[in-house]
Design a protein that fits this description.
single chain; about 325 residues; alpha+beta; seven-stranded mixed beta sheet; two-stranded antiparallel sheet; about 65% helix
């Protein structure tokens, strides 16, 4: 148990040290309200609270197990609400999610936290400094906690928006690691969406209940303000998810274009190499013809045709020139030279 207090007409009249003392103090004060704050309570503590305030066993089971999605359930005259607060961790560029379970009855509020956030001590301080609001009863505590959770979403939205801006810059710079970052941020946005979207139905249900059971009009206005802020957050998160899909598509297109450019460059390089091979091969063939003729007539055998002929030397040179010229023209016509 983190804190326990009994309030009468919006003012703290007792700060019991334990659960049993809180029960006694609440019975001693007519029209009093108990607000008990717990952090990862033991099972015997929840069993004690369940016995005292007649909490439904399914709600208690959820409060023990945690890992619930945001929801609102009514068990007779007790509300059970699950909230998923979030905070943005800039160092790791991650969103951390917590979990808060609330039991709200006619004369009590039990807040069960399974994470450090949100700081419900700040919520308690805010309400205690505004007795007129706290005088409105357990619904005022419920509103204040809900308002704190929804307000805590704003820095998360700002952090995600900044990450998306950075990713857009990385995509157009051609950063090779950006695909992984897009995937990781998309996962964070999806988790954030799971924490915020179901909360819309929770707030709508609370608003309907506030109207049905005649909750103070001022408190109903406050709850509508929370609903407006939450709707804005949900719309922004939806836009983030769609924007990340578009960024991923653009990144895939840019990567494909870059690969095409690289393939084109390789193809052009291969073509250039092929042209060079053709030129080298052509000149090699042209030079091979004179070498062949010269090699034949350079063997110095005694009995060789044209060896003693007067015009043998000019004929050999002419053959070399003629074959070389013929090969040159053939290669030139084929575009090798």
């Amino acid at each position: 148990m983190i804190d326990s207090a009994v309030y009468v007409e919006g003012r703290r009249v007792a700060s019991p040290e334990g659960l049993a003392a809180t029960y006694r103090s609440l019975r001693e004060h007519d029209a009093g309200m108990a607000w008990i704050g717990l952090y990862r309570p033991a099972l015997h503590e929840l069993d004690s609270l369940a016995a005292e305030f007649d909490l439904h066993e399914l709600a208690v089971e959820d409060a023990v197990a945690a890992h619930q999605r945001p929801k609102l359930e009514r068990y007779d005259d007790t509300l059970f609400i699950v909230l998923r607060p979030a905070r943005y961790v800039d160092e790791r560029e991650e969103v951390e999610f917590g979990e808060v379970h609330l039991f709200v009855g006619p004369d009590f509020v039990l807040s069960v936290r399974h994470s450090e956030a949100p700081d419900l001590a700040a919520v308690r301080h805010r309400l205690e400094s505004d007795p007129d609001l706290l005088r409105l009863g357990p619904e005022a505590v419920l509103y204040a906690i809900l308002d704190r959770v929804v307000d805590g979403y704003a820095p998360v939205v700002a952090g995600l928006e900044n990450d998306i801006d950075e990713i857009e810059d990385e995509v157009f710079r051609g950063d090779p690691s950006v695909s992984r970052r897009i995937y990781e941020l998309t996962r964070e946005v999806v988790e954030f969406q799971r924490a915020t979207r179901p909360l819309v139905a929770v707030v709508k249900g609370l608003a309907a209940g506030f109207g049905k059971y005649g909750v103070d009009e001022e408190l109903r206005r406050y709850l509508r303000d929370v609903d407006d802020h939450l709707t804005t957050v949900v719309e922004q998160v939806d836009e983030f998810r769609q924007l990340l899909r578009d960024i991923l598509t653009v990144n895939a297109t840019l990567v494909a274009q870059q690969q095409n450019e690289e393939m084109k460059a390789l193809s052009e390089h291969g073509i250039d190499q092929s042209e060079e091979v053709k030129r080298i091969s052509s000149w090699a063939a042209i030079l091979f013809a004179p070498t062949l003729v010269g090699g034949v007539y350079g063997m110095n055998f005694a009995e060789m045709p044209e060896l003693d002929w007067r015009y043998g030397y000019p004929m050999a040179l002419g053959m070399m020139l003629l074959v070389g010229l013929a090969l040159f023209l053939v290669f030139r016509r084929r575009g090798w030279l």
